[in-house]
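Protein entry
_____________
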Amino acid sequence: MRLLFVASECAPFVKTGGLADVIGAVPKALAGVGAEVRVLIPAYPALARLVAKGTPVMRFDDFFGGAGRIVAVKAEGLDLLLLDAPHLFDRPGNIYLGPDGKDWPDNDLRFGALSFAGAQVAQQGLDGWQPDLIHAHDWQAGLVPAYLRQAGDRTPVVTTIHNIAFQGVFGADRLDALRLKSALFTQEGIEYYGQISFLKAALQLSDRITTVSPTYAAELMTPEFGMGMDGILRARAGDLTGILNGIDLDAWSPDTDPDLIAPYSTRSLKGKARNRAEVMRRFDLTEGRGPLFCVISRLTAQKGLDLLLDCLPGLVGQGAKLALLGSGEPGLERGFVGAASRFKGSVGTIIGYDEALSHLMQGGSDAILIPSRFEPCGLTQLYGLRYGTLPVVARTGGLADTVIDANDAGLQAGCATGVQFPPGSATMLGHAIGRTCALYRERKVWQGMMRRAMRHPVGWDRSAAEYLDVYRAAMG
């Protein structure tokens, strides 16, 4: 099966969030079950070295405001197709945002061009290689089926919703600039309340739809979580499948991770204490009687981190510590920087993102806090399971699907791997922090949970097989 992935980012080359990790890992897992995958992503400045090494395989003379080309190159075990269009993608900083922190004003053209290029690969092929199916990811690839359908091409398309909060909505006056025919601008097509929605185009015109956990798939069909798309998704419920994300087990393994001070495994957990000491040092924390919690996250309301600010006095009062790495909303950044000053020695804050430090924090913390108001799947709790850093998670989306709560039933059955609590409430988050501190004091129980979490399957094998089933259904 020949597959073309179309996405806006891919780890380890360019990453702003979990989407990149998925795009970097799933093709390798699919290769293990017999699929041949090529990944089309924009050639941002960070990929200039790869562009120089690659081979041009398709050219565009008039490409949404300038010349463009597709360059093929192999790197990090992936077959990459880099969309080299400097007038669209050769820009500093964040791949979606300008220096003012707002969306680039031509993001419609930038990602319309990405979708158009994907459709062209399907229609024309590349040196004899032509995909049997296109797997488009999030709104940035949402116009792939629109370009195919208006050209009369029936190449199957599967679209994955990684986060429905981002929908790619632009003015109707952009139809011509995007090379879209007015016949598509209907309720059954790309029209959304008088505007163009890239995501709605994908949901209406793709052959199958997936999202990143079974619970999130169900949540998306409700007004609370569907963000205006719930009606479309209810109408297409038979074509919607929730498939859990996994993680790259080679990149995330506590017994071989080069970013840890000391390796460890379920056979011997001793190395975790050395990593813990290094995390405490890096965040200027003093030893206490409670667990070391970590947060590795974008600082946004979606992630529920305003609730955690309210809970910090109770966390510190129980002798626990917090190490936080992240960036995002200015108010939350200020809040956690202030908390580090107020609770010196008990709360440590580093604003920004550091991949190596995130690995060390997973290897050295006792528990990871994820109080999201909604969470399509989440990856940090999977990393936590892998590293025996027990996830304390809101009961929503993929968090609900991947962590087994340490309630009485879970503990007696010997299956608990973390702590769950109802989302959206500082009171319930505080209660979960208290439960975690109490479990931590039961050292035998805690270590049993750690080992159980580390054995929990978090790789891509099962999910890759489920994707193949979806692809086969899309291909009829």
Q: What stands out?
A: Residues 407 and 463 are 28 Å apart (CA to CA).
